[in-house]
Amino acid sequence: MSDFHQNGIITDFHNLTRRPVEELEAELVTFSARRPMSLILPSLFSELEGPALSNIVDEIAQVPYLNEVVIGLDAADREQFGYARAFFARLPQHHRLLWNDGPRLRALDAELDERGLAPQQPGKGRNVWYCGGYVQASGRATVVALHDCDILTYERGMLARLFYPVAHPHLNYEFCKGYYPRIAEGRLNGRVSRLMVTPLLRALKLMYGPLPYLEYLDSYRYALSGEFSMRTEVLDGIRIPADWGLEIGVLSEVHRNYSTKQLCQVDLADAYDHKHQPVSENDPSGGLNRMSLDIAKALYRKLATQGVTFSAEGFRTLKATYYRLALDLIEAYDHDAVMNGLSLDRHGEERAVELFAANLLEAGNTFLDNPSERPFIPSWSRVKAAIPDLPARMFDAVEQDNTSGG
Questions:
Q1: Dihedral pair phi/psi, residue 9, rounded to 5°
Q2: Along the chain (406 residues), what's the average pLDDT of each consecutive run of 10 residues?
Q3: Widest distance between CA atoms in the chain
Q4: What does the alpha-carbon distance between residue 323 and residue 325 come to, in Å, rounded to a whole number?
Q5: If we measure between CA atoms, which residue out of 85, 34, 104, 138 comes closest to residue 403?
Q6: CA atoms within 13 A of residue 355's CA, in its CB half-sphere
Q7: How far, in Å, CA of 396 to CA of 389, rounded?
Q8: Is the dihedral of CA 284, 192, 199, 324 positive or negative?
Q9: If DSSP states are collapsed to H, E and C, what string results for the chain?
Q10: Which one, of 280, 294, 300, lies nearest residue 352 by Cα?
Q11: Which InterPro entries match (predicted)?
């Protein structure tokens, strides 16, 4: 059972009554006449063969209010794209797959690259960006939601709760973020959020004061969750990172473009489990190692636009401040786990904190050494200004892929 406190600067939608999903869906069907809804599913082909996505598709197939499902498919050859079309064919809703590695979308990507407008690296951010452009081009929705394709505990009530605050015609929210506890198999999970983001925000506030941006980020209960919904026009004006900084980048952009009164978060589930990333201590290009580096860089870049001046000495102080706060949190989480009958690997938690602390310094050095780095994918409003007919041509390319088999 959730609490009922509104103690941040964004509105919190709690899960207080365990309202039946059928009631929520009935209201959403009514809302959809005025605010039609689309769902974006960014997916690697490998997730079609994983343990979660088949159940997710079965659950979505029962959702009565969706006007469109858009699947961004990465790392798929022609044969795998055909398999994916058959895999998602059970969806009764209008649905389209973006074959991101297919020749038609690759040609458009090359055209964007010639203008300096294409995403510069593969990944979830690139996938989401193209899906967002397609949703705008299709014009089938005024509200869009997004969630990951590896959620092992997925049920369609999560989607109903994610849509509700933004789809309700009498509420004025432009963006909604989902949150939940990360618990699975008797363990407390979510290390990057618990042990990096929270103590890092607190350390930054100690060093640079209670900046509105830091207070804003600290209001989110799960800033790194992959579930959010928004009005489709939000997609037009935001610039997002192509790397693991996607979630922080999206939060930063909606904070830049909208009043906090138009932003909210919603409790989606009592427990949530998805694919666990390895720590990858010896591989800075993967796992939580890469994730923590990208998140730190995303935060530094945003704070620099807020007037914060960074230095090598400042990053060393930040590392030490963060480390002490993170160690204190490990003890608090350990005690919380004990009371709830959960297990917590304190040794593993401390090793993760040591890695995150080192990466705060590494990300800082990278930030200082590369002042001209272009980390963000340009907004769709900029793309349309440079190449006005590109969204329409992307829509046609997706239609051809989906009707001709690639």
A1: -100, 10
A2: 84 93 98 98 96 97 98 97 98 98 98 94 91 97 97 96 98 97 87 95 94 95 95 94 84 95 96 69 69 91 91 96 97 95 93 95 92 79 97 98 82
A3: 59
A4: 6
A5: 85
A6: 23
A7: 11
A8: negative
A9: CCCCCCCCCCEEECCCCCCCHHHHHHHHHHHHCCCCEEEEEEEEHHHHHCCCHHHHHHHHCCCCCEEEEEEEEECCCHHHHHHHHHHHCCCCCCEEEEECCCHHHHHHHHHHHHCCCCCCCCCHHHHHHHHHHHHHHHCCCCEEEECCCCECCCCHHHHHHHHHHHHCCCCCCCEEEEECCEEECCEECCHHHHHHHHHHHHHHHHHHCCCHHHHHHHCCCCCCCCCEEEEHHHHHHCCEECCCCHHHHHHHHHHHHCCHHHEEEEECCCCECECCCCCCCCCCCCHHHHHHHHHHHHHHHHHHHCCCCCCHHHHHHHHHHHHHHHHHHHHHHHHHHHHCCCECCHHHHHHHHHHHHHHHHHHHHHHHHCCCCCCEECCHHHHHHHCCCHHHHHHHHHHHHHHHCC
A10: 280
A11: Nucleotide-diphossugar_trans
The two three-digit tokens of residue 101, written as one number: 């590695």
What size, in residues, is the chain?
406
The amino acid at residue 230 is: M
